[in-house]
Design the sequence.
């Protein structure tokens, strides 16, 4: 997979390093000469250019990319890069960094964004996830399909503890994608039984989140 990353700061370089370790091709693009630090990510391709300009993106051969990541520290730049990547080059997947939570509402499919990652929101969510049992925590928003990645730790008193995944009447527009149980990451099947303390990750429509939380936190006494 070929990935172009706009923004070669600490965030962009860190993402590039992870992707390279996983065997992907990575191109880092930045207009600041001081950001071009080839020695820090020597296996990546580097391009000194303004990612908001068509000529730069032509040089980057963005049409060959499977994914574009707009990872600069400027929300305006990230939106422009996302829009150009999607509308001018037809990039299948565009991921954009949100620096200011007040701008999060802009990062949607109208601006070419498939996945918006808000660092402040994610850090807040991870804090909540670490201390919350039985409360739904939003981890990420997907622009396409109007859905969120949400997490909930199944409380010990939950009525669903011991119930098979296939026997649960899940709300519409929700999908259980992963069960984290101790050190194990499980791909749920219909026959897997839920256990107290399981971290459950769902992709869910925002309108279904309250219904999902009520279902998972309902106690046996409430049945």
Sequence:
């Amino acid at each position: 997979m070929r990935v172009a990353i706009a923004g070669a700061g600490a965030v962009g370089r860190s993402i590039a390093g992870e992707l390279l370790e996983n065997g992907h091709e990575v191109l880092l693009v930045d207009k600041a000469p001081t950001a071009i630090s080839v020695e820090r990510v020597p296996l990546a391709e580097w391009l000194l250019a303004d990612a908001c300009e068509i000529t730069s993106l032509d040089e980057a051969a963005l049409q060959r990319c499977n994914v574009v990541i707009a990872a600069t520290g400027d929300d305006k730049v990230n939106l422009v890069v996302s829009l150009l990547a999607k509308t001018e080059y037809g990039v299948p997947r565009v991921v954009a960094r949100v620096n200011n939570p007040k701008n999060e509402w802009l990062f949607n499919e109208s601006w070419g964004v498939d996945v918006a990652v808000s660092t402040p929101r994610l850090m807040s969510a991870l804090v909540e996830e670490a201390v919350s049992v039985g409360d739904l925590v939003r981890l990420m928003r997907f622009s396409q399909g109007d859905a969120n990645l949400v997490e909930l730790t199944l409380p010990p008193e939950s009525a669903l503890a011991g119930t098979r995944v296939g026997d649960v009447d899940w709300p519409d527009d929700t999908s259980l994608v992963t069960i984290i149980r101790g050190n194990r990451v499980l791909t749920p099947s219909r026959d897997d039984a839920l256990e107290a303390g399981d971290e459950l990750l769902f992709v869910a429509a925002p309108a279904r989140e309250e219904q999902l939380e009520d279902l998972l936190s309902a106690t046996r006494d409430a049945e």
In short: The chain has a mean pLDDT of 87. The first strand starts at residue 2 and ends at 6.
